[in-house]
Amino acid sequence: MNPSPSFADGLSAGAGRDAHADGPTGGRLRRLIAMDAAGMAVVGVVYLAAASPLGSLFGPGTVLVAVVGAAMLAAGAGIALVARLRPLPPGAVFGVIGGGVFWILLSLAALALGLLELTTTGLVWTWLQILPVAVFASLQALGLRAHLHAR
């Protein structure tokens, strides 16, 4: 067991009460993954519901915003399934983290290579959407590390 608590360990006090198969670190990690899934699904639904105005606002057009929205909704559902697995399989959690890292790299490549015709708002939004993905991936990596050390 890791004697020094990590940031991910401190996300919520008493978090072990619903983590019967995983211990406290697994419960915290599970909630972190569930929050990631919920946020991704919500943004996916918004992208789908408002694809036309967002496509104009951000610049890439309705079709790309709708495709990204559908992909985010599907990914959110997949991540939610991972959050429900008992015990949490480290490989599945690593897959969630890898998906976040892939999204960050894809976004950075699109920005660096000018692959999308983004408006100023679209450029700002693309940079801003990288932040929560990076935060979740980082916290999930810390949580997975703590979970593995606690096993």
What's a quick, concise take on this entry?
With 151 residues, the protein is an all-alpha fold. It is 75% helix and 0% strand.
Describe the structure.
The model is unreliable at 1-20 (pLDDT under 50). The chain has helices at residues 23-49, 51-58, 62-84, 90-113, 120-150. It has 151 residues and is mostly helical. Helices cover 75% and strands 0% of the residues. It contains five helices and no strands.
Q: What about the largest sheet?
A: none
Structural class: mainly alpha
Q: DSSP strand (E) fraction?
A: under 5%
Measured as a percent range, the helix fraction is over 70%
First-residue to last-residue Cα separation: 7 Å
Number of strands: 0
Overall geometric form? elongated
Poorly predicted sequence stretches spanning 5 or more consecutive residues: 1-20
Order of helices and strands: HHHHH
Radius of gyration: 17 Å
Number of helical segments with 4 or more residues:
5
State mean pLDDT (0 to 100 scale).
88
Describe the protein's topology.
Elements lengths: L22 H27 L1 H8 L3 H23 L5 H24 L6 H31 L1
Provide tags for this entry.
151 residues, mainly alpha
